[in-house]
Amino acid sequence: MEGQSLTIRKPDDFHVHLRDGNVLKTVAPLSAAQFGRILVMPNLKPPVVTVEDAKQYRDRILKAVPGVDLIMTLYLTDNTTPEMIRDAANSGIVKACKLYPAGVTTNSASGVTSLDKISKALDAMEQLGIILCVHGEVTPDVREDMFDREREFVRSVLVRITSTYPKLKVVVEHVSTKEAVEYVLSHPSDNISATVTPQHLCFDRSALFKNSKLHMDLFCLPILKTRDDREAIRSAVNGGGAVCRSF
């Protein structure tokens, strides 16, 4: 209403890379200073693949920033089993698993090479209410052009996941294309949502190559896309028919 404001003093951040070691000690206090609750990504070296890994990582984070509310995730691999998912569901600290297609982004070499290899794990996640967070890009061998990898993921992977596991809660992380936005917004189920990054809201690929130079401070994965893609993301977060779905 006019003349009124809402101040979120300690918002949630549902996609945080705290890394490890000295980097963790540097960045964790920065996140904790701004956010009251954070969802911690698991792509360390080695990755966080078991509940015990998650507990140890959580302890290291809390040593750096005592008191922050942490939601831990597991890193899906071809060897993730239903038993590992049940352990996560019973742990009290792990609420989600992250799907990194092998080779698509930072520390993703141990990621999933085929959905078929994690079908039983996804079944267990659907049954037990563990959320699936996805890095929505196909691998370079499937789509060489990195500007098209998210679009192809939506067509060939995301559609398959949501149709095969209709009760599985899915979060499409850091959407960067109009196609991903439209798929999430138009999906009839309340079991699919998305996260958005500041850079994909603020910039498109013209900024990345401004003045015929590569501006590495704007390079990220997924890479910045077209102005139309950026405008679709802006429209969604500004209430353009979007429904806020949180799990």
TrEMBL record:
It comes from the Eukaryota. GO terms for biological process: 'de novo' pyrimidine nucleobase biosynthetic process; pyrimidine nucleotide biosynthetic process. GO terms for cellular component: cytoplasm. PROSITE patterns: DIHYDROOROTASE_1. Keywords: Hydrolase, Metal-binding, Pyrimidine biosynthesis, Zinc. The keyword Zinc applies. GO terms for molecular function: dihydroorotase activity; metal ion binding. Gene3D superfamilies: Metal-dependent hydrolases (3.20.20.140). Its EC number is 3.5.2.3. Pathway: Pyrimidine metabolism; UMP biosynthesis via de novo pathway; (S)-dihydroorotate from bicarbonate: step 3/3. Residues 13-239 form the Amidohydrolase-related domain. Belongs to the metallo-dependent hydrolases superfamily. DHOase family. Class II DHOase subfamily. This is dihydroorotase. The lineage of its organism: Eukaryota, Rhodophyta, Stylonematophyceae, Stylonematales, Stylonemataceae.
